[in-house]
TrEMBL record:
Pfam families, sorted: PASTA, PBP_dimer, Transpeptidase
Keyword Membrane: yes
Full protein name: serine-type D-Ala-D-Ala carboxypeptidase
Keywords, ordered alphabetically: Membrane
PROSITE patterns (alphabetical): PASTA
Classification of source organism: Bacteria, Bacillati, Bacillota, Bacilli, Bacillales
The PASTA domain, residue ranges: 600-660
Entries under SUPFAM superfamilies matching the protein: beta-lactamase/transpeptidase-like, Penicillin binding protein dimerisation domain, Penicillin-binding protein 2x (pbp-2x), c-terminal domain
Length: 740
């Protein structure tokens, strides 16, 4: 038998060495990984978590903005975010594609339903055709930025009906402003913003939304879980939930109803008179709370569309020359210093300071008139003469006390301070009637609170409280802040009485602002508009009114300005009154403020009695429940007050002027306004002291007045309100200064 010879197999040996080495390396690697848990310096657990661990965001709601009564002004609401799937891997059945297959058609349909995409159709096509990221990795889905967010349910449904492959919608939150145009420059707006990390956050862009963005913004929560390679949730995997923290809620001082009154009135005037701009504020003088604030032109925060609009809150951020509304505070300074002598005379028409001359609005004046009549006529020269009594330094000090030239400190950003010009004598003179120096509307409101609030000046504010939306706990609570007492209580009351006479006096410039049920006090303003290059525009004015009501116990202050309205042979006060009157009247009724007299429910119409017998008319009026006052010795009536076609409350006075000597009536319980009417009709020398109802008179009732001896009448504060007198519209006023 032949013995087999052993042959060494080099091929097998080499294969053994090769595979044995690989096995050894693999075994060594496995042992190393198990021992260290790291690869290339990174922990395997971390890499696995990164690959298979998933995280879902729980979106936090932005805090709501409410009015003082809890009515919603701004809130988050359900909307939809659009996503386009561009990866072909999403489609498993070619007959039922799950990704975008026709970019051009998809872009055209989306542009049809989403206005923001109409001008970006080419960009949409490019986005849908781009299937790779900048690093070369394939894209699974794309989004469309702000144009693809905030989509309503209606639009979402219409796009779904088109059955576009690859277009999906995800529920989202959108900032919603349910009232449309509503204090828009105050509230502002918030928009969705893309962050660098790919997340989306709602950010305040303007107004309170911007100022209080930190408080309103919540903190998103998250859900963490594990999936397999196919993105299916692994069985028994733990879910870790971090709940979202919603933003804080902000309650404003605004009253939604009053704000709506204001918006409606301003919109009507804007449509009728097409002014360049308008501003208006309603405030509570007792607390300083701003109950309403708006301006024109304005915008709807839902669309943010506007024309020729300034993106700033003009009530706070823009200064104006206030015109004759400033005379209110000149008057208050004179009364508070004891320099107000209403029955003293001055020469109206013009007043010269060195080489400069100021003139009254009618340029030639009214001859010698009393300071009281001068104020009622809004005579600039009266203020100039009054300044010599007050003293320049004292007057400027009072303006400082009223807060002019300083920020009010309202809880809003970018407040302007204005400038009180006082370096030169002519500047101090023009400042008395509101020219040259600048203020903000909110400063006028703050200063007027001192007049309305018996000398106590209140700081205006718009934030009532900030509340944790989850717990209801009050985080910030704003209380009324007294800014000092620039004038005495008696001064404030007297100023209100005189301001009321600008509506009821025969010479008053504010007759357009008379309300049917409430007594209003205030001052008109007709300010020239300065040019950027110096000087003033010709025949272009800022018309305004700063008023309060009711006079005896003011509950509201309203400021309205209308710049460069297109007037139809009307006074500039007319468009202003068309905002002021309905807002003041409706707001007082909304607040359940009782009218000046419960007898206002019983009203009597009167006619024009001129030329009729005073004796016969006297009987007729008395039978109607009115109080006729015959001025003169009787006979034919040559003038009456109030004028014809007026509706008066029963018990109201009706003055009938005739020829002949005047017999002094019994003034007991007469109001200041009735005294002023009697004085104006008779031309008698009367010195009036105090406010309210007449308490005494120096000349007995029934005396026939035959000489010019002054009659002293003293008033006392009334225990109950008096009946308002009513009068028709009057002339307006214009302030100007010129070089000599």
């Amino acid at each position: 038998m032949k013995k087999k010879r052993f042959r060494f197999q080099w091929g097998a040996f080499l294969l053994l060495i090769f595979y044995g080495g690989l096995f050894f390396l693999l075994f060594t690697r496995m042992v190393t990984l198990q021992a260290t848990g790291e690869v290339e310096g990174q922990e395997l657990a971390a890499r696995a978590a990164a690959k298979y661990g998933k995280e879902s965001v729980i979106t936090a709601n932005r805090g709501k903005i409410y009015d003082q009564n809890g009515q919603v002004i701004a809130e988050d609401t359900l909307s939809y975010r659009m996503i386009a799937i561009v990866s072909e891997k999403a489609t498993t059945d070619p007959k039922n594609p799950r990704h975008v297959v026709d970019s051009e058609k998809t872009a055209k349909v989306l542009a049809k339903y989403i206005p923001a995409m109409k001008e970006k159709e080419d960009e949409i096509v490019k986005k849908l055709n781009n299937r790779y990221r900048s690093d070369g990795e394939p894209l699974y889905q794309v989004e469309f930025g702000s144009a693809g967010r905030g989509i309503s349910h209606e639009v979402m449904s219409k796009i779904k009906e088109e059955k576009l492959p690859g277009i999906l919608f995800v529920s989202d939150l959108k900032r919603y402003y349910p009232n449309g145009v509503f204090a828009s420059h105050l509230i502002g707006y918030a928009l969705k913003k893309d962050n660098e990390d790919g997340t989306v956050t709602t950010k305040g862009e303007m107004g309170l939304e911007y100022t209080y963005d930190k408080e309103l913004t919540g903190v998103n929560g998250k859900v963490e879980y594990e999936t397999d390679a196919f993105r299916y949730l692994l069985p028994n995997s733990e879910k870790m939930i971090t709940p979202a923290k919603n933003g804080d809620d902000i309650y404003l001082t605004l009253d939604k109803t009053i704000q709506s009154f204001l918006e409606e009135a301003m919109t009507k005037v804007e449509q009728e008179y097409n002014p360049e701009s308008m501003t208006a504020v309603v405030a509570d003088p007792k607390t300083g709370k701003i109950l309403a604030m708006s301006q024109r032109p304005t915008f709807n925060p839902e669309t943010r569309e506007s024309q020729n609009m300034k993106w700033l809150n003009e009530v706070i951020e823009e200064t104006i020359e206030p015109g004759s509304t400033m005379k209110t505070f000149t008057l208050a300074s004179a009364i508070d210093t004891g320099k107000w002598t209403p029955n003293d005379w001055f020469m109206s028409g013009s007043y010269t300071v060195f080489d400069r001359t100021i003139r009254d609005h009618n340029r030639y004046g009214w001859g010698p008139i009393t300071y009281l009549e001068g104020f009622q006529r809004s005579a600039n020269t009266g203020m100039a003469h009054l300044l010599t009594k007050i003293g320049d330094d004292v007057f400027i000090d009072y303006l400082d006390r009223f807060g002019f030239g300083h920020k009010t400190g309202i809880d809003l950003p970018n407040e302007a301070a204005g400038t009180i010009l006082s370096k030169y004598p002519i500047q101090r003179v023009t400042t008395t009637y509101g020219q040259g120096s600048t203020v903000t509307p909110i400063q006028l409101i703050q200063a007027m609170t001192a007049i309305a609030n018996d000398g106590k000046m209140m700081q205006p504010y718009v934030i009532d409280r900030i509340v944790d939306s989850s717990t209801g706990k009050i985080i910030q609570n704003h209380e009324p802040v007294e800014k000092g007492q620039p004038i005495k209580a008696d001064t404030a009351k007297q100023v209100r009485e005189i301001l009321a006479s600008t509506l009821t006096s025969k010479h008053g410039t504010a007759k357009d602002f008379i309300l049917e049920d409430y007594e209003v006090a205030g001052k008109t303003g007709t300010a020239q508009i300065p040019k950027a290059s110096g000087g003033y525009l010709s025949n272009q004015y800022l018309y305004s009114f700063l008023g309060l009501a009711p006079v005896d116990d003011p509950q509201l202050i309203v400021y309205v300005s209308v710049k460069k309205p297109k007037l139809n042979n009307e006074l500039g006060s007319v468009p202003v009154s068309k905002v002021f009157n309905p807002v003041m009247l409706n707001s007082l009724k909304h607040l359940n403020i009782n009218p000046d007299d419960v007898q206002h429910v019983n009203k009597v119409s009167i006619q024009d009695f001129t030329g009729q017998s005073a004796e016969a008319v006297e009987v007729e009026l008395a039978n109607d429940g009115l109080q006729p006052i015959v001025v003169g010795s009787g006979g034919k009536i040559i003038e009456q007050y109030p004028t014809n076609t007026q509706k008066l409350v029963k018990g109201s006075f009706v003055f009938l002027k005739t020829d002949g000597e005047v017999t002094l009536p019994d003034f007991t319980n007469w109001s200041l306004r009735n005294l002023l009417v009697f004085k104006s009709m008779t031309g008698l020398e009367m010195e009036i002291f105090g406010e309210g109802f007449v308490a005494s008179q120096s000349v007995s009732a029934g005396t026939v007045i035959t000489d010019s001896s002054p009659i002293v009448v003293k008033l006392k504060t009334p225990a109950e309100s008096f009946v308002q007198d009513v009068e028709a519209a009057s002339e307006g006023e214009v302030e100007e200064v010129e070089d000599e």
